[in-house]
């Protein structure tokens, strides 16, 4: 007996049906696949924006830390007492 849905739950046409009998199943499957892809794209976009912000923040912190270390080295080079 053929499966009526895919593993993700999309409806499948029945091999014994005429296309006119299964056109609604095919439309539903395409609509649901499109919705799933749209949702996945939005999640990807949101994650990408979050990671970009996090990396920008880390880069700024690294630059500030490198600047601080550079100033400490200059002070040590010129004999400043800490």
Task: Sum up the structure in keywords.
82 residues; 1 helix; rod-shaped
Helix-strand layout with pairing:
Layout lengths: L18 H59 L5
Gist of the model:
By secondary structure, the protein is mainly α.
Overall pLDDT score: 92
Oligomer: single chain
Q: How many angstroms does the end-to-end distance come to?
A: 82 Å
Question: What are the secondary-structure elements, in order, as H or E?
Answer: H
SS content category? mainly alpha
Quantity of strands, as a count:
0
Radius of gyration: 29 Å
Overall shape: it is: rod-shaped
Give the percentage of residues in beta strands: under 5%
Q: Can you summarize the main beta sheet?
A: none
Number of helices: 1
Bin the helical content. Answer: over 70%
Spans of at least 5 consecutive residues whose pLDDT stays below 50 are: none
Would you give an account of this structure?
The protein has 82 residues and is mostly helical. The chain is 72% helix and 0% strand. The model has no long low-confidence stretch (mean pLDDT 92). It is built from 1 helix and no strands. The longest helix is centred in the middle third of the chain and has 59 residues, at 19-77. 0% of the residues are buried. The protein has one helix spanning 19-77.
């Amino acid at each position: 007996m053929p499966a009526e849905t895919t593993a993700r739950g999309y409806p499948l046409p029945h091999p014994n049906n005429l296309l006119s009998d299964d056109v609604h199943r095919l439309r539903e499957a395409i609509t649901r696949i499109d919705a799933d892809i749209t949702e996945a794209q939005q999640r990807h976009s949101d994650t990408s924006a979050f990671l970009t912000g996090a990396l920008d923040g880390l880069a700024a912190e690294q630059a500030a830390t490198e600047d601080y270390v550079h100033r400490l080295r200059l002070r040590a080079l010129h004999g400043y007492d800490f």
